[in-house]
Specification:
The structure is a single chain. This protein is of the alpha/beta class. It folds into two domains: 3-63 and 167-344, 3-Layer(aba) Sandwich (QueA-like); 67-146, Thrombin, subunit H (Beta Barrel), CATH 2.40.10.240. It has helices at 137-144, 161-164, 189-197, 236-247, 257-266, 306-315, 317-329, and strands spanning 27-31, 39-42, 55-59, 62-63, 67-72, 75-86, 89-95, 105-109, 112-119, 124-130, 175-177, 201-207, 230-234, 252-255, 276-280, 295-299, 340-344. A nine-stranded mixed sheet has the order 2-1-17-16-14-3-12-13-15. Strands 5-6-7-10-9-8 form a six-stranded antiparallel sheet, covered by helices on one side. Strands 4-11 form a two-stranded parallel sheet. Helix 6 packs across helix 7. The longest helix is centred in the last third of the chain and has 13 residues, at 317-329.
């Protein structure tokens, strides 16, 4: 398919620079099954669209402070961690990358530095980090790293972003995302308690979101795009709970595109979710046959992005184009810190 089919015009003022406060006060556009027009709500209304017996699937990966600033002589180098390859060994994006040479030492803080191991023409480098003795890499990173706000949030990260660019249910033992699974940013402990009280089961899976999420699709056809790899995990217990809920007639409600990609990577030919622990580069475009997910809660995505393609596959491309046009007209806030939508899977007739 032509990538241009997933384009739309978004006024700059519709890009959210700060999150809604409180979290569940964000707006919620609801697009039901075969409905032609969306409904307008707020995230706090979500329980009214859920049913006892449904299972909600959340990505519990924790965002790390993946943006770093180093010095090479007098020049400043910006580093964005991308993909962990080993103990302290990371694929990264660097700016400016052209001036870096293999073997360069990049000081970050006292006794914390990075050595350039390899470099590539696309601005990627592989860095081996060294950190103070007696600390872990992630403990050292917490002291000097910045929250990796995406480039369209045109401001420096602040103290509040350390908590607001993190879901309330992220697992401190599952550090690894360099971008937030943003649909989950809207949930509060109170909203989660209301969902539990309905008889809706909650299940966690893990997908460590990579910086490739921000990379634009630069080709003209979706067939030419190379999807980035991300590590995903579904536990035995999570798979069993999802399969049991489905067998009993419950719906699978995925919170975020990362949950969708994890589940649809872990399902077998018979439609059963299997335990999974591997990297996935699943690329979902219109025509994809969803085997697991019935309902998707997600934020509003960038034009011509792989995520715009995923929601178009889930809810219908023309319907999503119309829904986005209405969201823009109704002054919804877009992207990571913006509003959300709740989409029932569209059955083409």
């Amino acid at each position: 398919m032509q990538v241009s089919l997933f384009d739309f015009d978004l006024p700059d003022e519709r890009i959210a620079l700060y999150p809604a406060e409180p979290r569940d006060a964000a707006r919620l556009l609801v697009l039901k099954g075969q409905a032609a027009s969306p409904e307008h709500h707020i995230v706090r209304d979500l329980p009214q669209f859920l049913r006892a017996g449904d299972v909600m699937v959340f990505n519990d990966s924790r965002v790390i402070p993946a943006r770093l600033f180093a010095k090479r002589g007098e020049a400043k180098v910006e580093i964005l961690l991308h993909r962990m390859r080993g103990l302290g060994l990371w694929d990264c994006f660097a700016r400016p990358a052209k001036k870096l040479k293999i073997g360069d030492e990049l000081p970050l803080a006292e006794n914390f530095s990075a050595r350039v191991m390899t470099k590539h023409e696309d601005g990627q480098v592989q860095l081996q980090f060294a950190w103070p003795e007696g600390q872990t890499f992630f403990a050292a990173l917490e002291k000097v790293g910045h929250m990796p706000l995406p480039p369209y949030i045109a401001r420096a990260d602040g103290e509040d972003d350390k908590t607001r660019y993190q879901t309330v249910y992220s697992d401190v033992e599952k550090k690894g995302s360099v971008a937030a699974p943003t649909a989950g940013l809207h949930f509060t402990p109170e909203l989660l308690a209301q969902i539990d009280a309905l008889g809706v089961k909650r299940v966690h899976v893990t997908l460590h979101v990579g910086a490739g999420t921000f990379q634009p699709v630069k080709v003209e056809s979706t067939e030419e795009h190379q999807m980035h790899y991300e590590y995903a995990e579904v536990s035995v217990e999570a798979a069993q709970k999802i399969n049991a809920a489905r067998a009993a007639g419950g719906r699978v409600v995925a919170v975020g595109t990362t949950s969708v990609r994890t589940l649809e990577s872990a399902v077998d030919a018979a439609g059963k979710v299997q335990p999974f622990a591997a990297e996935t580069n699943i690329f979902i475009t219109p025509g994809f046959e969803f085997k697991v997910v019935d309902v998707l809660m997600t934020n509003f995505h960038l034009p011509k992005s792989t995520l715009m393609m995923l929601v178009s596959a889930f809810a219908g491309r023309e319907r999503m184009q119309a829904a986005y046009a209405e969201a823009i007209a109704q002054n919804y806030r877009f992207y990571s810190y913006g509003d959300a939508c709740l989409l029932e899977r569209f059955n083409h007739v």
